[in-house]
C-alpha cells in the first residue's frame, strides 16, 4: 500500500492524529483529514485519493453522503466505528469495517480488503 493516497474522516482530533501518524508510518500518503461532515464531503468529491477511512458518526451526523460520493467516484472505503456493523449505513453493510479501539494491523487488512474487492 506504499504511496496510496488516503482520506481520513474522524471527528475525534486525537484519533485523527493517531491515524494520520500510523498510516504515514506504513507508507500511505494522507490525501486529507476531515473532522466535520461538510469538510469530508468536499474532500471526498474533489481530492485525489485512492481509498478512505470513514468514521460512521461525524459529530451528530451520519457519514452516508460521504460514502455515496466515494461510490459515485469509484473509490473504495472502510468504515471505522465503535458500534459494530449495527451502526453502519443500511446501503453499505457489505463494506469492510474496523471496530474502535483498533490496531494498525486491522486497519491495514481492512484497507487491503477494500482495495481487493
TrEMBL record:
<feature type="modified residue" description="4-aspartylphosphate">
    <location>
        <position position="55"/>
    </location>
</feature>
<dbReference type="GO" id="GO:0000160">
    <property type="term" value="P:phosphorelay signal transduction system"/>
</dbReference>
<dbReference type="InterPro" id="IPR001789">
    <property type="entry name" value="Sig_transdc_resp-reg_receiver"/>
</dbReference>
<dbReference type="InterPro" id="IPR011006">
    <property type="entry name" value="CheY-like_superfamily"/>
</dbReference>
<protein>
    <submittedName>
        <fullName>Response regulator</fullName>
    </submittedName>
</protein>
<feature type="domain" description="Response regulatory">
    <location>
        <begin position="5"/>
        <end position="115"/>
    </location>
</feature>
<keyword id="KW-0597">Phosphoprotein</keyword>
Amino acid at each position: 500500500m506504499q504511496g496510496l493516497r488516503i482520506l481520513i474522516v474522524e471527528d475525534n482530533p486525537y484519533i485523527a492524529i493517531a491515524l494520520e501518524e500510523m498510516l504515514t508510518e506504513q507508507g500511505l500518503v494522507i490525501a486529507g483529514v476531515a473532522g466535520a461532515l461538510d469538510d469530508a464531503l468536499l474532500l471526498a468529491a474533489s481530492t485525489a485519493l485512492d481509498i478512505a477511512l470513514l468514521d460512521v458518526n461525524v459529530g451528530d451526523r451520519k457519514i452516508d453522503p460521504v460514502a455515496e460520493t466515494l461510490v459515485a467516484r469509484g473509490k473504495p472505503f472502510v468504515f471505522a466505528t465503535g458500534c459494530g456493523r449495527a451502526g453502519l449505513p443500511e446501503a453499505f453493510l457489505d463494506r469492510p469495517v474496523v471496530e474502535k479501539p483498533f490496531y494498525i494491523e486491522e486497519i491495514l487488512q481492512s484497507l487491503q480488503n477494500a482495495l481487493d474487492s
